[in-house]
Specification:
Order of helices and strands: HHHHHHHHHHHHHHHH
InterPro entries: EcsC
Oligomer: single chain
Number of strands: 0
Protein name: EcsC family protein
Structural class: mainly alpha
Shape: elongated
Pfam families: EcsC
Organism: Rudaeicoccus suwonensis
Distance between the termini: 43 Å
Length: 311
């Protein structure tokens, strides 16, 4: 419980900051629409296999039943007790994965003494892997929880329901994560190409870092900015990944507990289904990652500026 409380304290402010930055990004609505239209393949290569990776026989043995249908006849308290206490583990795993992806995109430190940064292939690959991994983690979480409450997400109808559970529980969208990593990559490229402070200050992340430094009583220099960018990347992308996993676990548990009670006691599902947001997960996890990061490497007008003046 202490670990979960600590996770909430870390991920909630990060998620709020990320959402604020995302909302302030020009054209973010259009960009998110592009994301939703382009990453459909990830559901087939990562999400669905992750949901189907749960060992149903092991779950049935743990519950003491021979079929998942029998699990729905158990007392809710018995099922709740059998549910693995893996929320913290999955959340920290997502945090670590998101942090590594941020370091891959920006480097351990962004130095202005060189003129080239991460290659296009490395950046695109890191963003794609980060998005795919985050989606896979959510799929595994939902598949595991569904099985414990007596539902097999391998069945077509149950798969559709599980996709809805993921979409409802995902407060941070894959689009926002991709945009955050792309923005970090763009900023790292600008620093390495010795952009002027006027150019750097147009980046919202630079403004955020500058505010933090001023609050701490320090003067932001380009060297310090280069050191701060990877740290911000770890906090931002790692925190967003952790928030997605934590939210997916909580939402899946709550929804399947409600579904369990609805089916067991023949309640009217319309009383709670009708109020649930209608979001298609296959529309929520798509994007041409290449299109988001090409500007980081192509056609970036940067003036030489070796000075280290503050912004």
């Amino acid at each position: 419980m202490r670990g979960r409380s600590a996770i909430r304290k870390v991920t909630k402010p990060v998620a709020a900051t990320a959402s604020s930055l995302w909302g302030m990004t020009p054209g973010h609505a259009s960009l998110e629409g592009q994301v939703r239209r382009s990453l459909e393949g990830l559901t087939a290569v990562t999400l669905q296999p992750a949901m189907n990776s749960v060992n149903l026989a092991k779950v049935q043995g743990k519950l003491g039943v021979s079929t998942l249908a029998e699990a729905r006849e158990l007392d809710l308290s018995a099922v709740d007790k059998a549910l693995p206490r893996l929320r913290t583990l999955y959340t920290f795993g997502a945090l670590a994965e998101g942090s590594v992806s941020a370091v891959v995109v920006t480097g351990a430190e962004v130095a202005s003494a060189v003129t080239t940064g991460r290659t296009l292939a490395v950046t695109v690959g890191a963003i794609a892997v980060d998005t795919a991994t985050s989606i896979a983690i959510m799929g595994r979480i939902v598949g595991l929880i569904a099985a414990h409450y007596g539902y097999d997400v391998c069945e077509p109808d149950e798969e559709v329901f599980a996709l809805g559970v993921i979409s409802v529980g995902t407060a941070t969208t894959p689009a926002a994560k991709i945009a955050a990593l792309a923005s970090l990559s763009r900023l790292a490229q600008q620093i390495m190409r010795r952009a002027t402070w006027a150019q750097l200050n147009r980046n919202l992340m630079v403004q955020l870092i500058d505010q933090v430094f001023k609050a701490l009583g320090f003067r932001l220099t380009k060297r310090r900015l280069g050191q701060a960018v990877p740290v911000l990347g770890i906090a931002l992308n790692g925190g967003m990944s952790a928030q997605m996993a934590n939210s997916a676990f909580a939402s899946a548990r709550d929804v399947y507990r409600l579904r369990f009670l609805t089916d067991k006691y023949a309640l009217d599902p319309a009383t709670w289904v009708s109020s649930a947001p209608s979001v298609d997960i296959e529309d929520a996890v798509r994007d041409d990652v290449l299109g988001l990061v090409l500007d980081d490497f192509l056609g970036l007008p940067v003036e030489d500026d070796d000075g280290d003046e503050s912004p």
